[in-house]
Design a protein that fits this description.
Layout: E1 2-7, E2 10-15, E3 34-41, H1 42-51, E4 58-63, E5 70-76, E6 79-85, E7 92-97, E8 101-106, H2 107-110, H3 113-119, E9 122-128, E10 133-140, E11 146-151
Antiparallel strand pairs: 1-2, 3-7, 3-9, 4-5, 4-8, 5-6, 9-10, 10-11
């Protein structure tokens, strides 16, 4: 896109490069398509994230109606790490799992969520039938109001 601006006899030529995507990403995360959902205390996940091997390129999330129920794994230069959570754990407030699902996500895309995790008291982790991930953080602000930050 090219255009020219003129203000007080000063002319500025402007050019903005634009990109037309080949395909539009589908962020349609419909609650009716959610297969698995876990709500847990953020404190627990903060500890797990500090123990994960962040040199790994991927974080594997497994949710299952059977043992181990909820599992986070990384595979990096320092080896592999794995954290398992029982659905009956004190840290798990709600566990709804209809189908065993194992999905891998790029850690580089999840790193920005760590800032929200540090401020949150609870987290909802949901996956739909495509393996699409939704992380919803419950944060209480200084006034005591509850707000939510959501990442897809």
């Amino acid at each position: 896109m090219y255009f020219r601006l003129e203000e007080d006899s000063v002319i500025t030529d402007c050019s903005i490069k634009t990109l037309e995507p080949d395909e539009v990403l589908d962020f349609d995360f419909c609650s009716t398509n959610v297969l698995n959902k876990i709500i847990m205390k953020a404190k627990c996940l903060k500890e797990v994230f500090s123990e994960l091997d962040m040199t790994s390129e991927i974080l594997q999330i497994m949710m299952s109606p059977d043992t181990p129920y909820f599992q986070l794994s990384t595979f990096g230069n320092a080896g592999s790490t794995q954290s398992d959570f029982s659905k009956d754990s004190d840290m798990v407030e709600s566990f709804q799992c209809t189908k065993t699902q194992t999905n891998r996500y790029k850690i580089s895309l999840l790193k920005p969520t760590v800032k929200a995790l540090a401020q949150s008291s609870r987290i909802s982790i949901r996956t739909d039938n495509r393996g699409f991930l939704s992380l919803q953080y419950m944060i209480k602000n200084e006034d005591g109001q509850v707000c939510f930050v959501e990442f897809y």
